[in-house]
Fold this protein.
Amino acid sequence: MSAAIFEAQSSRVLFGPGCLAQLSVELDRLGAQRVMLVSSEGRSEMAEKATASAGGRIVESFDQAVQHVPQHVAHGACEAAASSNADCIVALGGSSAIGVAKAVALESSILILAIPTTYAGSEMTPIWGLTREGRKETGRNPRVQPKVVMYDPDLTLGLPAKVTASSGLNAMAHCVEALYASDANPLTSAAAVEGLKLLSTSLPLLVSQPADREQRGVALQGAWLAGFSLGTVQMALHHKLCHTLGGTFDLRHADTHAVLLPYTAAFNRDLAPDAMRSAATALGVKDAPTGLLAISKAVDAPQSLRDLGMKEEDIDRAADIAVERPYPNPRPVTRDDIRALLAAAWAGNGDYVTS
Ligand code: NAD
């Protein structure tokens, strides 16, 4: 049994169909008077619902959130918050909207209330990310952790199958890495196992029946547990690689997670036997990496980095960046081994995962 340190993150979570109706009450509890709504372009319908539930407090709307939080988007959001004198952000949508809210909170004392509508999990973490000059930086700061999180499955009934699949696999990656984290603890591991169970059962069903309210709730609970896991322990190779590829080559974040997850799990398979056993049991399979590959195929997720637009000649640069800074990982990370992993994931060579 290894030593552990667990520090609870303080956020208030509301879960349930229709809980968006409680928004005004929750803003009252926070003492929020002037609220900026942050979302991504195209989400105007749900933004209108949130505005209607906010009790007349929305003084500014910023709908330019995009993945990886490019510096110019963060600046735009910071300026909008300052000029409207907002004291709270309602971040509505996927983790891109939540990420932009966090960029503002990093530079100010603004509070965040998050209403997540994908499964990526940023709402439960103190982790921020910013992309400057082609490099994605991430860090932890309790100031960016949303004070309130409202999970309303009704807002996710129209989530496209592609986003359901990729953000759901992103959440599963949080769970898998939490199980073999250098600072894993019993609470996070229990959450990660349950998160894997909930997500692995609901995602394949949701891809064919997107409006299944019951399963939307199951998946959103899985996302809650996955985000909690991500926020509580140190992440390893899988997340570092995804940040390298996303920030440097502008690959879609959740799709990159979806492609890499079976490969990074296979990379660590032999050096994290307990975690792999727990993950396999949660997935109801014999071998966790093989089971993860099967789920990614079942939900029709992209199968190779090539499919995501990465060029073969970028594999070497990606391997160089991935080993620039050391981080804990069950299997030592060498450039040659990472290059082999990336080459297999680039080609979608499933033999790397199953053999
Ligand atoms: P996203 O927020 O970019 O959303 C993907 C697409 O789905 C967008 O077009 C969005 O408008 C749309 N969408 C969202 N909810 C919808 C709904 N209910 N119905 C219809 N369309 C909807 O993608 P994401 O995967 O949620 O987030 C990716 C970003 O989050 C990346 O930048 C990643 O780095 C970051 N992230 C951060 C953390 C963290 O802890 N800091 C954790 C996970 C992901």
The first strand starts at residue 12 and ends at 15. DSSP finds 14 helices and eight strands in the chain.
